[in-house]
Task: structure prediction
Amino acid sequence: MSKPPMKATARTKLLEAALTVIRTKGFSATTVDDLCAAAGVTKGAFFHHFQSKDALGVAAAEYWSEMTGTLFAGAPYHAPEDPLDRLLAYLAFRKELLAGDLPEFTCLVGTMVQETYDTAPAIRDACARSITGHAETLEADIEAAIRARGLTPTWSAKSLALHTQAVIQGAFILAKSGGGAQIAADTIDHLIRYVKLLFGLADASAPATARVGPA
Result:
C-alpha cells in the first residue's frame, strides 16, 4: 500500500506563501502577518523557523532556486542534439512560461534584489546566487555551440548566459510597468533573434520558436 503524501511543514508553507505574496506585493510591502495569513500558520510558527523577515527572504531565494532548478532540469529544451538548438529551445521555453497573472510568471529573486540590493546584503547575495547559478546552467551549451560553429567571438559563454538573464529580468520589469506578458514575450523574441545573429543563422528574423524534439 502506498504511503499518504507527507504533510507540509509550517516552514514549507511559509516558503510557498512567500513565492506568491512577495511576487504580488514586493518584499518591502510584505509583512510577517501577510505571510502567516497566506500560509495558514501562526506568528509563533513563523519565528520558530525564521529569526526575521530578512531570514525568510534568504530562505525564500534558496527555495526558489531549488524549485525552479527542478523545473528547468526536467524541461524539454534539453532534448535537441545541437547545442544551439538547446539554447534557442531554452529561450522559447522561457517565453512559454509567460502565462497567467504577473505574480505567476515573474521572478521572485529578481523582485527581491531590486528592493534589497543596498539594504539587505544577505538577501541580495542569495538572489545573486540564484540568478547567476541559473545562468551557469546555459554556459556548457553556449560553449559547445561556439565550438561546433568554429567561432572565435570576443564575448564569452558566461557573458552571453548572463545577458540572457538580464534581458529576461528586464522583460519582467516591462511587464510590471504595464505592458503585461505580451511585451515580455516580444522582448524574448528579440533576444532569440539576437542569439541567432550571433551564431550566424540566416533565419534570424523567423518567429521565436525552437525545436524541442527529434528532427
Summary: Confidence is low (pLDDT under 50) at residues 1-6, 207-215. The longest helix spans residues 157-198. The two ends are 42 Å apart (CA to CA).
